[in-house]
Specification:
About 15% of the residues lie in helices and about 45% in strands. Strand 19 and strand 20 form a beta hairpin. The protein is α+β, with helices and mostly antiparallel strands.
Length: about 375
């Protein structure tokens, strides 16, 4: 038996968030479910695919405490279609059904045995960091796009969380570019390195949208991110991350300083004409600035001079235009610096006057030229 009344908006928001951890095609029926637990005036919803788990909670008027394992996607579909206002939920153990009432609407959903739902949390978690939600979300967004998304290479599909000297560093690479941010000051001096699937961290960034603090906890093979109303648990990836520090150059022959918005706008225009397969855009450093060029045999060409301060002489180099647009979109700096060691070597992009954020990108060898 279980019975409670909750506000539909709170219920559907929590259920939609939890559903993101529920697999579309679960290998076992219980993994397609959302575990609902009603206790002490709070409704907890949990979902997992065994690698990522999300748990959300909200307040409710609980008459009878209990728990039930509900078909996740059907539950969310029902809640989305209900009118705003209170919802009554009642579980009848004898029928193994849960009854949902909202106004004149009545729904009945079959439940699964709650004890078949896999346990989410380990008891041996250790707190390793506490930081503002905005700080963590910004850091994740600054590097996650650079991780591989093919699902074939676990290390490259992961983000490195590195703790040391009172700071948290995030690093991601897909082998063609590398993003690093180290703006997260921690109150405690903890050391350690943890590999987290990029999908898990993207979910963390999406869910922590408030002004609270988030606790980061680890166990032997899990990492958890917890706020006052959300808990995200992820498996840790085994293995040692790539020796990324050794590939970041420290000496450069060419430099360019440019207003981020001007450069981004020019690249987005060039993207319309970039080659379909390699998305090539050519950059030519001149004393007047950065000449941006792209062409397509089916569309035409674009050539634009972006005002910039350059040094080192002229340089002609090509990149995948998307690999330049993505970091420029997420940075907030008014001015950025581009540094080059050669037209066939990686370039470094960073906010002017700071190396707290560094983005290393390899050029492409098939270059468009004017």
């Amino acid at each position: 038996m279980m019975e409670f009344t909750a506000i539909r908006e709170n219920f559907v928001t929590a259920a939609q968030n939890v559903l993101r951890a529920v697999p579309t095609k679960p290998p076992r029926p219980e993994l397609g479910g959302i575990l609902l637990t009603a206790k002490a005036g709070t409704i907890n919803l949990s979902g997992t695919d065994t690698e990522l788990a999300i748990k959300c909670h909200f307040d409710a008027d609980i008459s009878v405490e209990g728990e039930a394992l509900l078909p996740g996607r059907y539950l969310v579909d029902v809640l989305r279609r209900l009118p705003p206002g209170p919802i009554s939920i009642r579980l009848e153990p004898s029928s193994q059904h849960i009854f949902i009432t909202s106004g004149a609407s009545n729904f009945e959903l079959l439940t699964w045995p709650a004890n078949e739902f896999p346990p989410l949390e380990r008891n041996d978690k250790t707190l390793i960091a506490t930081l503002p939600e905005l700080t963590l979300r910004t850091g994740v967004n600054q590097v996650a796009f650079a991780a591989a998304k093919d699902g074939l290479r676990q290390l490259l599909n992961s983000v490195l969380i590195s703790l040391g000297q009172g700071k948290m560093r995030l690093v991601a690479t897909d082998g063609h570019r590398l993003a690093l941010t180290e703006t997260m000051e921690l109150g405690e001096d903890v050391t350690g390195e943890y590999l987290v699937p990029v999908r898990s961290l993207e979910e963390v960034a999406r869910l922590i949208s408030g002004d609270e603090e988030v606790q980061v906890l680890v166990s032997e093979n899990q990492i958890a991110f917890e706020t006052s109303n959300v808990l995200v648990i992820s498996r840790l990836v085994e293995g040692k991350y790539l020796p990324y520090e050794s590939v970041i150059p420290t000496e450069f022959s060419w430099q360019a300083t440019v207003r981020r918005n001007d450069f981004l706008a020019a690249l987005e225009r060039a993207e319309l004409f970039s080659a379909d397969k390699i998305n090539a855009v050519n950059l030519n450093l001149t004393p007047e600035g950065i000449e941006v060029f792209a062409q397509s045999p089916d569309i035409g060409r674009v050539q634009e001079l972006v005002a910039a301060e350059t040094s080192g002489g002229e340089l002609d180099i090509s990149f995948n235009v998307n690999y330049l647009i993505e970091p420029l979109k997420i940075l907030a700096a008014e001015t950025v610096q581009l540094e080059f060691t050669g037209r066939e070597s990686a370039a470094l992009l960073s906010p002017l006057g700071s190396k707290d954020y560094q983005y290393l990108v390899m050029p492409i060898t098939t270059r468009t030229t004017g």
